[in-house]
Amino acid sequence: MLNKQKCLESLHVHTSETLMRDLQDIAMQQDRSVGELIRAVLEQYAYGAVAKLRPFNAADQAR
Fold it and tell me: What pLDDT does residue 59 have?
């Protein structure tokens, strides 16, 4: 899901040093910041989960 909204909200997450280093490595490989990476993962999870909760609509599938 492509989100064009301004990202004004802040979220503080505690992680292990190992996880943080791994996230930094992944973000660097993808040429993005850790914040962008985490935001993309959260959006994919949240909006994917929402889509699974919605009933299937054949009209939406045709778009």
Answer: 64
CA-to-CA distance for 32 and 20, rounded, in angstroms? 14
Q: Which residues of the chain have pLDDT under 70?
A: 1-3, 50-63
The Cα 16–Cα 14 span in angstroms is: 7
DSSP code, position 19: H
The alpha-carbon radius of gyration of the chain (Å, integer) is 15
Task: Give the residue extent of every domain in the chain.
Answer: 17-55
pLDDT of residue 1: 47
